[in-house]
Design goal:
Layout: E1 26-28, E2 33-35, H1 56-123
């Protein structure tokens, strides 16, 4: 198969600060282009897309970057879990105090209204 020109629709711009493979871009050797595509096969020519570099030095760089990103993601997720665990405790205690106050005020108004009703018919 040869390039049919479909791949130009998916052409990827070079990312700033990171590598092409690290940012999720893939390369078609037949079309000689980097594309942003989710599949393993080129949408244009049907050949397999390269997802990592051929050079050993650049493979090591990519591997190190991916491992660092995974460690960072785990740390961020752990921090989010800690925040989530702390927030419900504070919210629950605040809700309990508000509901307790609301119930006591309602009870007082009901008792006061009952006294007024009881006093008013006797006076008539």
């Amino acid at each position: 198969m040869t390039c049919k020109g479909i791949c130009t629709r998916y052409k990827a711009q070079k990312p700033v600060g990171t590598g092409r493979y690290a940012s999720g871009q893939k390369r078609c050797q037949i079309c000689e282009i980097f594309i942003k595509w989710e599949g393993l096969w080129c949408p244009c020519c049907g050949y397999r897309l390269r997802t990592k570099p051929r050079n050993l030095k650049y493979k090591a760089k990519l591997r190190a970057r991916v491992e660092a990103d995974q460690l960072e993601a785990v740390a961020v997720k752990a921090a989010e879990v800690e925040e989530i665990e702390l927030e419900p405790i504070a919210v629950k205690s605040a809700k309990k105090t508000k509901t307790a106050k609301a119930k006591t005020t309602k009870a007082k108004t009901v008792k006061a209204a009952a006294k007024k009703v009881a006093v008013t018919p006797v006076a008539i």
